[in-house]
Amino acid sequence: LRTVGLMVTLTIGILSCPPAAGAQQPAKKVPRIGFLGNSTAALEANLVGPFREGLRDLGYVEGRNILIEYRWAEGQYERFPALIAELIALKVDVIVTAGTPASLAVKKATTSIPLVMVAVGDPVGSGLVASLARPGGHFTGLVSIAPDLEGKRLELLTEVVPKLSHVAFLLNPANAFHVTSEKQARAAAKVLHLKVEFVAVRAESEFDRAFQAISSQRPGALVMLADRLFLHHRARIVDFAARNRLPTVYAYTELVEAGGLMSFGPSYPGMHRRAAYFVDRILKGVKPADLPMEQPSKFELVINLKTAKALGLTIPQSVLLRATEVIQ
Fold this sequence. Notes:
Helix content: 40-55%
Distance between the termini: 95 Å
Mean pLDDT: 91
Structural class: alpha/beta
């Protein structure tokens, strides 16, 4: 009896003891994010940086408790399907990308992996989501669309360029959002009594032809619509505008930093920082369908005074006072 009692006591003691130091514990799965870039790591560093900062603010440290798989299209939209296939094969938990073309490419490739869209133009009109308040499906994020955005860019040009009557627009027909942008621009031009021409660029190989078409039209100014292909080839576009002495308003501040005249639009770095919030919520179990899409509430006007001087333009004080940043 004593022997049996001792065995029972030993058995209970063994079962109640904590695991010995060094015993293997089930490894906790580290979330994996797929970041689909439109350009290159170097040219999108100002967007990736804020995204990483947003993640850090929420407690994520890349390489420790979260992994990010980067894929870069290098300004070639035809590369999207192959890059997305790589991310799907890696079984990423969430995909993050910017712009309408990249988002549509993700939707075509998968409807099961959650997608956080950044600065997508018209997600409802392009069929990405059911509505901004109730996206439905597996997609959500931040939109860049705003009422009469192209009209405001045209108004800026009329304030800066005396007696402006003719404006050329650079657009990408491969970008579904540009259908909406063109409608906005035509409506605004009619009100402002401006003649407008739209010149298309779908790929890098079409820039020379487009530039020749713009030069032959002899417009008084140029507007570049928001498109990641144009952002990737920013130096080429800014150089063309400078050589042809074309006052230009851009969608991205990067082109003004590269020597362009003006930019007006939402804060794209700020949107990328905010994208981390959507990623965090999804990783914690919230369905993308239950995360309303967010519209921009703040817009930035950046002006390059050095470029204005080179073009022989004087920026009115009324415009300077509205500027978020002035580059001397």
